[in-house]
Structure formats: structure tokens, C-alpha cells
Amino acid sequence: MRKIIERVKKGEIQKIIIIKLDRVSRRIVDFAMLLKTLTEYDCALISLTENFDFSTTWGKLIASVLIIFAEYELDQATDRTRVALVEIAEQGKYPYGGNVPVGFKRTEDNFLVIDDKKADTIRDLYRMIAEHRSCNSIALEYDREKKLDMSWTADKIAKIIRNTIYKGNFYYERINKFYEEFCTALVSDELWDMANAHIDKVSRVPTHTYLFYNIVFCNRCKRLTVQETTSKKNKIYYYYKCTNCDNRINENRIVNQIYMILMMIYENEDKNPYYQNEKSKIISKISRLKQMIENYYRMVIDEETTLQEYRDFKIKTENTIVDLEAKYKELSTKDERIAKDPFSALDKDIKAELISRNIKKIEVDLHTKKVVSIIQNGGIKK
Ligand SMILES: [Zn+2]
To answer: Ligand 1 mean position to 366 CA, how many Å?
Structure first.
């Protein structure tokens, strides 16, 4: 039957004649799904015993009614599976398909256990954050080293730190329920709390990141300026001040004058290889999952598996696909923002990191507030 379906899909078969309807499939749902496929590919089905031709107007009507009933039954099955998913979580099994949190692996019967190959990296992460290292600096380091063969962002790290699964507790978002002692803890409660306290602290207080840390010089005094901030109405202003002549310049005034150079620096560095890579990975993953669903369906037709198993698999897989599609969308909006004004769209710490990698020295006339020269790593500009 599978071979026939394949040929129908290729458009090689326009008509299937069978002796008796019950030879095609014993279950009405399966039969309706088969009819649906045949309708989609414009293939007629004629049964000799029942004297029935599904390509006639009357036959098409019967077919569509069958399909509606079958789909209704599948929907019911979906609801039942949702209930089943809750039961799975109650048993301490991880209810999500796809990837498990980094540092864990999935046993055959869906329990989460510690992945010894990755766990230490996660523990180090918690320790470093608890010792007040910033997510961003760790992200840059891990990403450069391609730690655990994955890409790292400050966001990803913060999410890991905030995930209670690492102290053994699982929050099941879909049903808004919390399971304590769900799996073996990867870090102690104390370490988890310390790391989270730090994340809470830095996300509440704005960080004082200077774009041009220790590279702005007073052109008249030939001295390195010092950084200072003032805040007005909850807004922070960044200045570079010469303690000798007591003049200063606002950071934005420097940015405006050297914006083209900053753009060039940005474009010279690899352009978002991370997002592009991540997006294409998602696309191929989605198409792989869709293919898997189709293969599974063929197994039902060939009676190699039960319809129930197929449904469970389909629902689980489709949930994963929905998650992936949401992630893809998120990355796309980020891309759009970057395309409009690439440099401005970057996070400030990323900008600062980019600048410190590429610019050695900026000389400024603090009286006229003009940038006089920029020395890049490997050449003089302006
Ligand atoms: Zn000066």
C-alpha cells in the first residue's frame, strides 16, 4: 500500500480499483485518512464489491463526511493525549519532546538524568555567576571556545541559571504546575540561590557599561580620560572626563561622530553567524520532524504500528514543531532589527566588546567636543 501511495503522490496513478473496501483498511479512521490523501492527489478509488466509486459526486460527499468524522476523532485523541502528558509529568517523566535542558539526558523511558559529559560545564557556569561574573563575558568566552559544541549568548546563560530544573525542581509551564524533586539536582540549592541572587541584582540595577572604556584621550593634555556617569530622571549619561583640564564629553557625541567607523567595524566582523546558523538548523529540524510524522503514518497504513502510537507521536512531534517555529520567529524579528540599524540594535555590552577589540585609542578635543583621531588595531583612521 505504501508503494501505491508513493506513486499516487508522484501523480503516476489516477485510479485505484479494489475488490472490497475492507481490504484497504480495517479502521474507518485510517480509511478516511487514505481517502484524504487520494483526494489531495486527485486519485479515484473504486470498489467493485460495494459498487462504489469515490470519484463521483455522491462518492466525494461520502468521502468528505468520513474525513470530517475521522478528524473529529483525531481531535478527541489530542485532548486525551494532553491528559496523558500530565500523567507523564506526574510520574516524574519529562513531558517535552526535543532537547532536554543542557547538562541532562533522557533515559529511554523519559526520565531526566545527569549527563556527566556536560554537567561540569553547567556547574562551572553557576559557580562563575555566583562569583559575580557577568553572563555576557562568560557567553563570549564559551562561544569562542565552542563549549559543548553549541552557541552561547548572555540570554541563554541567564535562562539556564533561572531554570529550577538544575536544583531538581520542574516547572511545567503548559499546566502551570510545579514538581519538587522531579529529578536529580545538578547544583546545590545554595549555589542555585547564590547565582540567581546575582542575576536578580544585575538585572535590576543598570550596568555601567562604557562603550569606550579606557581608550578616550584628551587631545590637549595628552591624557587618558576617566569614565563618569550622571543620572537624570532615571536615565544614565556617560561621560569621559579629563581630570587635568576638567573638561568632558558625552559618550553619544563620540558615537555620532564616528558612527560610520563603528558600522565598518561591525561589518568586518563575521555578520551574525550565530543567528543565521541557528535559523537554518531550525528549518532543517522542522522538515526532518515533518518527514518523521509522514513516515510514521505510512507505517500505520502498512500496519506496522498502531494508530494510537502514531497519534501520540504526532502530537508530541507537532508540539515540538510549534516550539521551534516560535523560536524561528523570534530570531527573525531580531534579524530585522539588526538589518535596519545593525550597530544600534546590538546590546551595549556587545558594542563595548566590539569596540575594545577593534579600537586602541580615540583622541578628543574636549573643548570643541570633536573627535580628532581614532587609532584602530592595525591602522590609523581620520
Ligand atoms: Zn585635558
So the answer is: 7
Going from the Cα of 369 to the center of ligand 1, the distance in angstroms, rounded, reads 12
Closest CA to 145 of 174, 125, 170, 172: 125
CATH T-level topology, domain 104-204: Hect, E3 ligase catalytic domain fold (3.90.1750)
Write out pLDDT tens, residues 38-97: 888 888 888 877 777 777 888 878 777 877 777 777 777 767 766 777 788 888 999 888
- Residues 226 and 240 sit within 8 Å (Cβ to Cβ): yes
Calculate how far, in angstroms, residue 245's C-alpha sits from the geometric centre of ligand 1: 4
- Report how far ligand 1's centroid is from the alpha carbon of 243 (Å): 7
- Equal fold, 2-90 vs 104-204: no
pTM over 0.90: no
Please give the distance, rounded to the nearest whole angstrom, from the Cα atom of residue 223 to the centre of ligand 1.
6
For residue 24, pLDDT beyond 80: no
**What average pLDDT does the segment 128-147 reach?**
88
Contact (Cβ atoms closer than 8 angstroms) between residue 49 and residue 22:
no
Centre of ligand 1 from the C-alpha of residue 239, in Å: 14
Q: Would you list the domain boundaries of the chain?
A: 2-90, 104-204, 206-382
Rounded to the nearest angstrom, the distance between the alpha carbon of 376 and the centre of ligand 1 is 22
**Which CATH number is 2-90's, of 3.40.718.10, 3.40.50.720, 3.40.50.1390, 3.30.300.30?**
3.40.50.1390
Pairing assessment for the beta strands 112-114 and 170-172 based on DSSP bridges: unpaired
Measure 256 CA to ligand 1 centroid, in angstroms.
21
For ligand 1, a single-atom ion, the residues with CB < 5 A are 218, 221, 242, 244-245
| Long-range CB contacts for residues 233-236, cutoff 8 Å, separation at least 24 | 236/206, 236/208
Report the share of the chain in percent with pLDDT over 90.
29
Backbone region of residue 366 per phi and psi (left: phi > 0; alpha: psi in -120 to 50; beta: other values): alpha
CA of 364 to the centre of ligand 1 (A): 9
Per residue in 228-275, pLDDT tens?
888 877 788 999 999 999 999 999 999 999 998 888 888 776 555 555
| Cβ-proximal residues to 244 (8 Å cutoff; 6+ apart), any chain | 218, 221, 223
